[in-house]
Description:
The structure holds two protein chains of two kinds. Chain A is mainly α. Chain A contains eight helices and no strands.
Amino acid sequence: MNSYLYFCEVLNQLLLYFRKDLRQDTRSLAGISSVLLFLVGSAFIAEKCFEDIHAVGWIALFWILYLFAAISLTTHIFSKERSSSGIATYIYNKSLLFYLGKLLYMVFCLLLLGALLTLLLSLFFDSPVQDWTYFIGCLGLTTLGLSALLTFTGMIGGYVTGNQLATAIMIIPLSIPFLLVAVRCSIYALGLVVNTDMTSDFLILTSISILAIGVSILLLPFLWKA
Amino acid sequence: MIVPLKPGILSSQPLKAQFDSSVVLEVECYNTHLDQTSEVQAFLKHGDAVIKANKIEITDATHANLFFDLPASQDNKQISPTLLIDNPIDGIAILPSALIITGNGNKNTLQKWAPLDIESLHQNENFLFPFRNVLHETIRNTFFHVAIWFAMFILFIVSLIHSIRYLRKGNHYHDRVALAFTQVGIVFGLVGLATGSVWAKYTWGAFWTSDIKLNMSAIAILIYLAYLILRASITDTDSRARLSAAYNIFSFCMLIPLIMIVPRLTDSLHPGNGGNPALGGEDMDNTLRMVFYPAVIGLTLLGVWLSSLSYRIHVLKEKWLSE
Lengths: 226, 323
């Protein structure tokens, strides 16, 4: 019974952080609308440039826009966490729960972003996706890994002067292994390659994501311990 | 550097011949002394069987014309035999798949190839590096390119250990050491890319290719450059040390999938990937090993020395700034 209560409390706390972040973002719509404008604008420009696009181009465009939108979203979300409030956050919150809350929120935002981007690109160009299960699985796993990476670098970026640029510099090289495997996986979803060995790619994507989350959790206390 | 390569065969013309006919192979050898001995032998080897050249005209030390009488074949199968040239001074030189022999439809005569008389061949007892087609003299780059990457990895691992120790102990000594080792590691990485690039131009034909390992290594260098940028953009000493140590550990963990796992998923021109040989049991010549392993140790020690210099510069700079 005790563990059940503890579980409920943890879940409650997580939802609290999640709701706090969501409320913060919905109150001031500047951040969300800038990301939305970026997505719609880029998709529109791409449509005007390419008119018709091959499946490989579609998926390349998808991941590039996804990465850059995710970076601007991260800098927006973590710019609210001032470095001066870090110690207060450390004292008043359980750091692991705080991180998990942020991670949950990032996963939610990035999934929304992915869904929106898929919708937009399918609207402007015909969607080349053949197998939606693989595509969604791939998007979900990449989102999980990227969220861990973005949350970690976003937290570091909070301490950096001129953090937008520094966060982008940290994220772009680190996100390449995720994106490379993600591109391979999503190419299966487009039906461009028929490979019997696709489970290994999905397993690698899962394990890199778990690695990123695990290392972030291990290093988490040191981000606040001033 | 002055150790010569083993004798080898650079090229042989023509590339195509027919069974049951005579062929004259014009061969160009490398590091041979064909004109200094009269006991030159040449063979075409297919499986365990050989045919011996019935006449050899030697032009100079590295050029010769070999006359072969090709026997009739049992069937119309095409074969690509290996060319062997043997002499007492240089030992044996080998050119795999020297030419393609195709059938001419004449199946009447059945003449078997003779088994190779190993006793008649000579062995070169000198200390020589192996001759490999395509690589030729650039095989020596193994001592620089490969050894530098080994050394770079060791430097990054030392940097990682010091970052972990900084987070555990909070001693700024470890932070400075981690920074020094990372800086030298980046320099080694850039030199590794440069030596690899030159090697790629010679063997693959271009300075930069789409080879996965090449690009992953470039990204790894970018990750560590981001470490330096991160350090430069935090002003507070304590949080700079703490955050950069955390980032160093995180980026090393991301480096493992980048360099160890992802290149193994796709084909690569590099040894060790896509079925190419690498450092395994029979892949590297022992004469190369005798230089390669000391080179790894030497370059690592050079890296440690450079890191210690870099560390001292940091300490002096901090002292000077605080005065």
